[in-house]
Design brief:
409 residues; mainly alpha; two-stranded antiparallel sheet; elongated; disordered N terminus; disordered C terminus
Length: 409
Amino acid sequence: MAIKIKKDITVREDAGLGEGGVPTVAPKNLNSQEAQRYNEYLKGKATQGLLSALDKKWTDNYNKNRYEILKGKVTQGIQLTAAEQAESDFLINQGIQGFGNPVTIGITTGTPIGISTGTPTGLDETTAGKISAYNLLFDEFDQYDLGFLVSDIKKILLEGSLDPAEFSLKVRGTDAYKTRFAANDARVAKGLKALSPAAYIALEDQYQEVMRQYGLPESYYAKTGTGVQEGFRKLIENDVSNIELEDRISTAQKRVLNANPEVSQALKQFYPDITNGDILAYTLDPKNAIENIKRKVTSAEIGGAAIQAGLKTGMARAEQLGTYGVDKATAEKGYSAIGGGLERGSQLASIYGQDPYTQTTAEEEVFNLQGAQGARKQRQKVAGLEQATFGAKTGITSGALARDRAGAY
């Protein structure tokens, strides 16, 4: 059964603690975690000047044991963690192994052999060289929180026949490394260069920053336990830069999600495979080229402008208008003008037996498409017939279809 000594410090009753967590004898049979917690408890007593002789003896033994453990790790070429290094520095700098009387174990000044994180002395040149190379490689990866990729194969590196110059290649050949940097194999298969860990992680960081700036949910850049951001793999595989990624997200957000609803309506009508709900997923998928995405969005903006004016247009026509340089702004002006005179123009053409005056005819003139000159003459002809008959201007000559209202090209 476990009891509390102090807040957040718990050990077993059979460790030699009496009722309420007050030591009656020196704690015994503690596992490493319990011993560490009990040591922290005694540190608190030490700051208050409350250590007993029993306490001092216990801390002396505990810290001497900890020193030997750390010394043994480094002698074997094991990289100390930051916490372990801080602990070893404390023991060395204070020159004590407990909170009672100073106890030395052959250490006077400076850093003792076996506690340095450099190359241990007393080793043959080959082993020392391997340990040094291992430590350098570990440090290189650990700065990106990837030290485990190196430490997982430490035994192979240090005890195998590999030359230290081959350590890096060995690490890059492990399944763990390939999983963490999964996009590299696909890049090489496509004729692209594999990215170094530094470049790979830097690109991931840039992607994440762009997504945060645009307010995308964290699910778009969530990390697995090994640090992999699955949503970024396809982007890296296809050499998508952070600038292109921002362009893709901006296109989806500013031109569709945050635009007038008619744009989304036209997008769904023209391209049923894209819905408003997954427009972000569609634009983030590298298999959909950014230029094709923009072309489709432009077509949807043109279709949306027609809907706003009470008109209709199809995907093929909207895409054709896009190739003529029509964008959202000019489409809105143009269709507003067309909507103001189309009905009357159609009526007049029918009354006077002229060729039908259709939306297509008006679009040719307003957007300056092929056939614009013929469309203009047709409008002018029916407008002239109306004026000759009634002596007044018709709706389609009042400027409703004038090019200056649709934007000149």
